[in-house]
Design a protein that fits this description.
The complex is a heterodimer of chains A (about 240) and B (about 600).
Chain A lengths: L7 E2 L6 E2 L2 H11 L18 E5 L9 H11 L10 E6 L3 E6 L10 H5 L7 E4 L4 E4 L9 H5 L32 H5 L5 E5 L5 H7 L3 H9 L18
Antiparallel strand pairs in A: 1-2, 3-8, 4-5, 6-7
Chain B lengths: L6 E6 L4 E6 L1 H7 L2 H12 L12 E5 L10 E7 L6 E7 L1 H8 L6 E4 L6 E6 L2 E6 L8 H16 L4 E5 L1 H4 L7 E3 L3 E3 L4 H7 L2 E7 L9 H12 L2 H9 L1 H4 L5 H6 L21 H7 L17 E6 L2 E6 L2 H10 L4 H14 L3 H16 L18 H13 L3 H6 L3 H8 L27 H8 L7 H5 L3 H11 L2 H13 L5 H21 L4 H4 L5 H4 L2 E2 L5 E2 L3 H15 L10 H6 L6 H4 L7
Parallel strand pairs in B: 1-6, 7-12
Antiparallel strand pairs in B: 1-2, 3-4, 3-6, 4-5, 7-8, 9-10, 9-12, 10-11, 13-14, 15-16
The chains are: A alpha+beta (about 240), B alpha+beta (about 600).
Chain lengths: ~240, ~600
């Protein structure tokens, strides 16, 4: 697989710069009131990429979901979003992010489950993200049931078709620009290029949020969700 | 000013009915949260009502900008702890879910159910459901059971505000909690829930948030989320130490009370601060919806005698750490249980420290304590005392469960010199009144417990708000900017100041209606003026009575805009549209 030329895209405007240093200078001069300190500047990938969620950094603010709903519908409603956070009690409160992995062909359970031929939910090789063809989709929701990460949602208030992460390119013009990644205040969301050794990590993070919560809960052994392991007297 | 509408959900537990009321005019006048809440209490609860009777109301309040500057819910009610206006605030998902149901003025609970119930609110669906299987359960079990049951039923994650045995047993400082680490603690709100046989309120909203201009709200949120001031707070302050940030400075410079207020320093203070918590106990960081700072640092501690989890904040630790002479090691175990039982940590810690002092000096005996050998800093004795207080077993713990004033009556006048509590019937644990920052002591000596600030009316979270001050200016500016985008009202700086003043006077007026009078009730324990305390660095201080009286006079007139005696100025009441209070308050001799 050839390494495609990677440009450093400015997170605040449409410009692309040649290297990290030039990008930093550009931000400081063209966007003087926008922050650089404390946020990692990394290049916007040109190749196939996905949103990688660092669940342990997530604090559950939900700004990612609000950014998504603003981008797609112009209103703030977390249930209109294609990325979302689930709050668990383990018994300590912990937020777990649910995102679409933009799976490689072998793992695309949603595409395989779609009864339409060709599938109405598919990975567009030209624009390089998942998309649903709303003209052919019948809202049977088999894709949602098949998805291992529960990333596909259905909300009739937003749309009569299922919702899947299109990396903020809903008109499928090839202009990926995930807003959730930009706004996450803890930098828990990363937008990675698949060719950079990320593929194994994505495969291991392709789990349901329940399973992820269970894994986190192991840190709190022997606590159960329902109480602390003390005192000797119970109601 | 046009703008959006504000809907209040009113639920009557006696009749089992509910209805929606348009309270837009009241919200424009008083804002939401405790502003609207106090107005509802004034209108709907007759003077002299017993706070534990069905006549009391409980307003679970949100405001025009809940969720935008942190997520805060401010609850208003007549307080079982003081008998005056009561307010308790809580952060977390509850506020977010209430806003998304479109009941953007909150939920008002009236009456009393004839059996244990919980309230279910799912968008339009309002149900009063049986809670017999939940009554008596500790908090984690209650919340987990409810949330799992409702998830199986609806596929939705509900937010739940629950009480534990403390509230069920009508302990006067019982609290209501959510998500294990958030709690509404002041004024005995848990006892109000318990007196209504209300075990929990479960809320879920899926509606688009009720904003006038989503695009503008979003721009404000983006600016906030990505601003360097926010990053600083996240990375080096709240985001690391949570509300233990600043604890070290307070401890070292005599800012907290130790050994039931007999000193302002003890080497035990070296055992506990935000840094120690971060390295030894914190598991991850958690935050509220919309807040980029995320200030919750839950801890986990596994020992051979048990495993504990919860969250420690300055407010809920200092009473045990300082006043009862323990460090985080012991406090974690006690607080874990306390969070399960559902009582206000700050108040109960101070009461238990007082009990240790009384026991040492023979004012209460081992028999009074039901056999507990209550030595200073003894974890097991403290745990046992805590349990007895919550279940009102034995003479002394049952007295403590009634709060300071009640317990002093039971224990007798010999107990009063040892009592270390404020005018709002709350323990003095945080903010030692005798140390250099005397300003902190003024609140202890003049407060009445009612909700009276811009933050609890807008609603805004003070902890979240610091970057907002840097970006937009003082709290009034922040409120104005966000209210304009969210509610569509253009309020001037002076209008906001008038609203602040109106809420403050109204709250105090409500307490005065119920019997609060500055001549009688504004006080600090005598020790604040007679017992000097010494900080870590050898600075000894005590508050001379004349200095306190002068500072208080200044505070009344400059900060609270009252008269020198702390009474309500008639001209101000008339100017702010509160003249309807005058005929009610005049017989109480609180108007000047």
């Amino acid at each position: 697989m050839t390494q495609e030329l990677i440009k450093y895209a400015c997170p605040y405007c449409d410009q692309e710069l040649d290297d990290r240093g030039t990008l930093k200078t550009h931000i400081e001069t063209a966007h003087p009131s926008s922050p650089v300190w404390g946020r990692e500047i990394y290049p916007a990938p040109k190749g196939v990429a996905f949103i990688d969620a660092d669940v342990m950094r997530c604090t559950g603010c939900g700004l990612c979901a609000e950014a998504c709903s603003m981008r797609h519908y112009g209103v703030i409603n977390k249930d209109f979003a294609r990325i979302y956070v689930r709050n668990f009690l383990l018994p300590l409160p912990k937020a777990v992010i649910v995102t679409c992995s933009q799976c490689q062909a072998e793992e695309r359970l949603c595409e395989k489950a779609c009864p339409e031929s060709p599938p109405a939910i598919y990975f567009d090789e030209k624009t390089q993200h998942m998309i649903i063809d709303n003209d052919r989709c019948t809202s049977c929701m088999l894709c949602r049931d098949a998805c291992a990460t529960e990333a596909i949602r259905f909300n009739p208030d937003a749309s009569d078709k299922p919702l899947v992460c299109d990396l903020c390119d809903p008109e499928n013009k090839g202009e990926r620009d995930p807003r959730c990644v930009k706004i996450c205040p803890t930098t828990a969301l990363y937008y990675h290029n698949r060719v950079e050794r990320i593929r194994p990590l994505r495969d291991s993070s392709r789990k349901s949020s329940d399973e992820k919560a269970g894994m986190i809960a192991r840190r709190l052994y022997p606590l159960t969700r329902e109480s602390i392991a003390y005192p000797p007297w119970h109601p | 000013m046009p703008g959006i509408k504000f809907n209040l959900l009113e639920v009557d537990l006696t009749t089992g009915t509910s209805r929606t009321l348009d309270v837009t005019d009241d919200v424009k006048t008083y804002l939401g949260g405790c502003g609207l809440g106090n107005k509802l209490v004034w209108d709907l609860v007759p003077p002299g009502t017993d706070p534990l009777s069905p006549g009391n109301v409980l307003h679970v309040g949100v405001g025009p900008i809940t969720g935008l500057v942190g997520t805060k819910v401010s609850c208003s009610f007549l307080s079982p702890l003081t008998g005056w206006a009561g307010e308790a605030s809580i952060s977390g998902c509850v506020g977010d879910e209430i806003m998304r149901t479109r009941y953007n003025a909150g939920v008002l609970v009236r009456g009393r159910a004839d059996r244990p119930v919980y309230l279910l609110i799912y968008n339009d669906r309002v149900e009063i459901r049986d809670a017999a299987d939940l009554w008596g359960q500790y908090l984690l079990k209650t919340e987990n059971t409810l949330r799992q049951r409702l998830y199986r039923e609806t596929g939705q994650e509900f937010a739940a505000l629950c009480i534990g045995p403390g509230g069920e047993n009508l302990v006067r400082f019982a609290n209501a909690t959510s998500e294990n680490v958030h709690s509404a603690s002041n004024g005995g709100i848990g006892a109000v829930f318990g007196s209504k046989n209300l075990k929990a309120i479960a809320v879920k909203g899926t509606r688009t948030l009720p904003y006038a201009d989503h695009k503008r709200v979003w721009e404000l949120k983006q600016t906030y989320a990505m601003h360097p001031a926010t990053m600083v707070q996240k990375r080096s302050e709240w985001g690391r130490y949570g509300a233990n940030d600043g604890m070290r400075a307070l401890l070292n410079y005599g800012g907290d009370s130790f050994k039931n207020g007999h000193s302002s320093w003890d080497p035990i203070a070296d055992k506990s601060d935000g840094y120690i918590h971060e390295l030894s106990y914190r598991v991850w960081t958690h935050g509220c919806p919309g807040c980029a700072s995320a200030c919750f640092q839950p801890f986990f501690k596994n020992t051979s005698h048990g495993a504990f989890s919860g969250e420690l904040r300055h407010g809920n630790t200092c009473g045990l750490c300082g006043n009862a002479m323990m460090g985080f090691d012991e406090v974690e175990e006690i607080n874990s249980l306390l969070e399960e039982l559902g009582v206000d940590a700050e108040n109960v810690h101070g009461l238990m420290a007082w009990a240790m002092d009384l026991y040492e000096h023979g004012v209460i005996t081992r028999a009074d304590l039901g056999g507990i050998d209550l030595k200073w800093g003894d974890r097991d004795a403290t745990l046992e005392l805590l349990r007895k207080i919550v279940y009102k077993e034995s003479r002394a713990p049952a007295a403590l469960a009634g709060g300071w004033r009640y317990a002093i009556d039971i224990f007798g006048p010999e107990s009063r010199p040892y009592a270390w509590y404020s005018s709002a019937n709350q323990s003095i644990a945080r903010y030692e009144p005798r140390s250099k920052g005397h300003g902190l002591g003024l609140a202890h000596g003049t407060g009445h417990g009612g909700g009276s600030g811009l933050f609890d009316a807008a609603t805004m979270c003070l902890f979240a708000a610091f970057p907002f001050f840097e970006i937009w200016g003082p709290p009034q500016e922040v409120a104005r900017t966000f209210i304009s985008a969210a509610a569509g009202w253009e309020l001037g700086f002076e209008q906001i100041n008038d609203i602040i003043q109106r809420i403050s006077l109204f709250s105090r007026g409500l307490s005065m209606r119920e019997g609060f009078h500055p001549d009688k009730h504004s006080f600090l324990p005598a020790r604040a003026f007679t017992e000097p305390v010494t900080s870590k660095y050898g600075v000894t201080s005590v508050w001379k009575k004349e200095e306190w009286e002068a500072a208080r006079k200044n505070y009344y007139t400059q900060a609270l805009k009252l008269t020198e005696r702390g009474l309500l100025p008639r001209g101000e009441l008339e100017r702010l549209g509160l003249e309807f209070m005058i005929p009610v308050l005049e017989p109480r001799q609180v108007i000047a």
